Amino acid sequence: MKITETGFEGLLIIEPKVFSDDRGYFFESYNSKILLENNINYSFVQDNQAKSSYGVIRGLHYQIAPYAQTKLIRVIEGEILDIVLDIRKDSATFGKTFGIKLTSQNFNQLLVPKGFAHGYSVLSEICIVQYKCDNFYHQKSEAGINIFDSGLNIDWKIPQERAIISQKDKIWPMFNQISQFF
Fold first, then answer.
1. List of E strands, the chain
2. For this structure, is 131 an active site residue?
3. Which domains does the chain have, with CATH numbers?
């Protein structure tokens, strides 16, 4: 596995070694020993999977401490633009976003530590996203930031008229209205 720093503390791109031949491919999507050797030490307790169609935008989600989650995100089928927002008030990158295309073709994964709001837009006709979490989902601790906050200037690569967004995601507050940071 190749592990690449992003310039955001703890936010890492993980590229597995893929073995391909005429039968298809094989790769280890998760190997705790290799991660430990690279000082990445999380105990994942929950796997989540979501299937979506083109234009779906999910996010920007996070859970408030003590139920905050670290996530390891990958795409099984299709393509997403994965976006994170640093909401750690003492971080050098507080209030900044990072985006990366994760696809079933590039096999890349994104390790998103606690203290980031996370979301993604679906760029392919169909997409299946799978992610590991190091803490269980806790509904009363769920929080979010509005994906169309103009102050964040996020280009989701989806025309706004084709965006498919849940009612819950449409009413999250703007970033400057958030009072609970990490």
1. 2-5, 12-15, 19-21, 24-26, 46-53, 57-63, 71-77, 79-86, 97-103, 109-112, 116-122, 126-133, 142-144
2. yes
3. 43-177 (2.60.120.10)
Query: pLDDT-based confidence at 137, cuts 50/70/90?
Result: very high
What pLDDT digit, counting tens, does each position of 89-113 carry? 999 999 999 999 999 999 999 999 9
The answer to whether residue 118 is catalytic is: no
- Compute the distance between CA of residue 79 and CA of residue 103 in angstroms, rounded to an integer: 4
131, pLDDT greater than 90: yes
Task: Check 42, 61, 62, 120 and give the catalytic one.
Answer: 61
How far is residue 131's CA from residue 110's CA, in Å, rounded to a whole number?
9
| CA atoms of 98 and 10, how far apart (whole Å) | 12
C-beta of residue 78 within 8 angstroms of C-beta of residue 51: no
The rounded distance, in Å, linking the Cα atoms of 156 and 158 is 5
* pLDDT on residue 179: 81
The tens digit of pLDDT for each residue in 13-49 reads: 999 999 999 999 999 999 999 999 999 999 999 999 9
DSSP one-letter code for 169? H
Catalytic option among 42, 62, 120, 131: 131
Cα gap 178→181, rounded to integer Å: 7
